[in-house]
Amino acid sequence: MFNKDDLKRQLAEMNFFPWDTVFVTANGINGDIEGGAEAALDAVCEYFSDGLLIFPAHTWKTVNGDHFLFDPETEDTCCGLFSQLFLRREGVMRSIHPTYSVAALGKKAAEYVRCDDGAETPCPRNGCMGRLVDLHAKLLFIGCGLQGSSFIHGTEEWAEVPDRLSPDVLPVKIVMPDGSCEDRNIKRRYSSFGDVSENYGKLEEPLLSKGIARKGVFAESECLIVDAERCAAFVAKLLQAEPSLFSTKGAVPDEFYAVKKSIKISTSLLSCNTARLEDEVTSVSHSDYIHIDVMDGHFVPNITFGVPVAKAVHGITEVPLDVHLMVSNPSLFIEPFAKAGAELISVHYEVDEDISKLITLMESFHVKPAVAIKPKTPVEVVYPFLDRLAAVLIMTVEPGFGGQPLIEGCLEKARKLRGELRRRALRVDIEADGGITSSNIGLVSSSGVTLAVLGTSVFREKDRNAYIDRCKG
Ligand code: DX5
Ligand code: ZN
């Protein structure tokens, strides 16, 4: 059973703020809610009490050639129960668009709904739908995806995609607040391809992959949260490339949006020629980080570099240091490595120390905190710390030695972590460490890894920087 506070907490978890401008489309709400739909609506109205809350109050199903009189005061909406209940609430203002009116609540509601005054076509750019872009609104879809979205209708019409509005006009009358009637000639949504808005769902994957949309949950309904401004700009680009994009069911072609994300490279010194440290460090200057594997011979059966080496490396290069503490008592080494110049420090989850306290310690010395997990440690263990981390280091070999083969199964953890980060809209690097080469880095990158540690494969190259650049993609 969900109560109002549960629902408000879920809105907070979806990274909404009380002062947001939010356009809500709800196709029923799954889950047992104490007080039913009205209570769910209370939760939403109370949560966004400092912002501008908008629902569709469309009437395109009822206002037509036969019933051409639109009275915003009395006409029901065809946008479902949640919209209908909202429309009838105290203080809710309705725009006077004859077929695509919206209902709004909040300090700026009166000014906002006036944007539809005089609107002729279903979704003019300067109407209420288009103004969502200028208001940096968030589109919240509860229990429904993008298909049928009147906002996406708008982006097609603003792009003047042919064959989206009826050739002839529909004369309608609007009952104005003073009781007078005004004539409007609107063009209804129409396409020779049928209802193309059923194909809007194809946008979901591209929008999620570009971080313009993210997933959430309200009661037990899956939600989509979309940044209106970035969505409109992205769809405009897609329609420029392919105006009839939505005329078919086919997926959005990869090349339209799969921007090849380059991956950052952290070059591990474990396999370099330490007798010529300065030359070796200089030879990998295209790295995004220099990865220093610190091993104490106890946490792992090997001993490597200490603080003096880190300090020396910091003195040789401008490339920031990524210090990987494979030690049993990381609390002893955070300060000295921070003072030696570390930019990012990762501690292992498996140590017998309090992870939260270790993160606080890293924060206190102004280094980027990261938590590392061994191959057998499940990635979920770091979830409680994600909002405080700069990176999660997923070991793709057993820690202790360079030159081992990649354990591909560990990449599943990167995929899971990417999903969790997306869901919570957190920007945390996913670092993979061990056995990575130019031949498997594509696989590593596509799993969601954003920072790859390479050691052996770099230092066996003659031209290391060329190799690093190739690996970056
Ligand atoms: C292993 C280290 C890794 C290793 C990566 O315990 O944490 O950073 O040095 O080096 P290669 O690329 O050789 O696997
Ligand atoms: Zn490492």
Short précis:
By secondary structure, this protein is α/β, with parallel strands linked by helices.
What does this structure look like?
The protein has 473 residues and is an alpha/beta fold. It has 2 domains: 4-257, no CATH class; 264-472, TIM Barrel. The chain has 17 helices and 18 strands. An 8-stranded parallel barrel has the order 11-12-13-14-15-16-17-18, surrounded by 4 helices. A hairpin with a 5-residue loop joins strand 7 (170-175) and strand 8 (181-186). The radius of gyration is 28 Å and the shape is elongated. The protein starts with a helix and ends with a helix. The relative contact order is 0.09. The model has no long low-confidence stretch (mean pLDDT 95).
| Ligand types | D-xylitol-5-phosphate, zinc ion
Please mark out the parts with pLDDT under 50 across 5 or more consecutive residues, or reply none. none
Derived from helix and strand composition plus strand pairing, the structural class reads alpha/beta
Helical content band: 25-40%
Indicate the proportion of strand residues.
Answer: 15-25%
Mean pLDDT: 95
- If strands are numbered along the chain, what order do they take across the biggest sheet? 11-12-13-14-15-16-17-18
Characteristics:
eight-stranded parallel β-barrel, 29% helix, TIM Barrel, 473 residues, binds zinc ion, binds D-xylitol-5-phosphate, 18 strands, 2 domains, alpha/beta, seven-stranded mixed β-sheet, elongated
